[in-house]
Design brief:
177 residues, 3 helices
Length: 177
């Protein structure tokens, strides 16, 4: 069995998974009905005003940084450009590890196929090759490989016309300079 790339550090995987779960819960939360308490609206407002920088995970590498609602400082936008019209939900970056790890969670009012097409074009222009397969179950998903050991995965679930995409990359440290 041939293994392509390496695994993302556990701290980044947990950060990305937690961010996606939080976003999906927020997207799926029903609106309060008539006569409902305003407590839910107040707590949602308080959450939106909370600090946008995630505290370091105990298992995260010392060079790992992450933020919510923006691109983290030093984020390699040349490697993973933000799709026009998309909003950043969260991002993380660790260039001190080998391979360097980059994660981006975003949302766009676009079909999953359009999101995958945008990132396919951007990654192929940088020498990445698409791996066969376009979905995992009903979720649009695409994997890319470059030089046999650099990998990128994009997964794009859609809910109510909004695509929330998660991109994880494991690349050579010189690819993010």
């Amino acid at each position: 069995m041939k293994v392509i790339g390496t695994h993302m550090p556990a701290g980044l995987v947990l950060l990305a998974a937690g961010t996606v779960m939080a976003v999906m819960s927020a997207c799926a939360a029903p609106a309060p009905g008539p006569g409902a308490s305003t407590e839910a609206a107040v707590s949602t407002s308080a959450l939106a005003q909370a600090s946008t920088t995630a505290p370091p995970s105990p298992s995260a590498s010392p060079g790992t940084s992450a933020t919510v609602g923006a691109l983290v400082a030093g984020f390699p936008q040349k490697l993973l450009p933000l799709m026009p019209g998309a909003k950043v939900v969260a991002s993380s970056f660790d260039k001190s590890a080998s391979p360097a790890t980059v994660a981006l969670v975003g949302s766009a009012a676009a079909r999953p196929a359009a999101v995958v097409a945008f990132y396919t074009k951007a990654l192929e222009a940088q020498g990445f090759k698409a791996v066969p397969g376009n979905s995992v179950g009903t979720v649009a998903s695409k994997d890319f490989v470059r030089a046999g050991n650099e990998t990128v995965n994009i997964a794009v679930p859609e809910n109510a016309g909004v695509s929330t995409f998660t991109i994880g990359a494991n690349v050579a440290p010189e690819s993010v300079k």
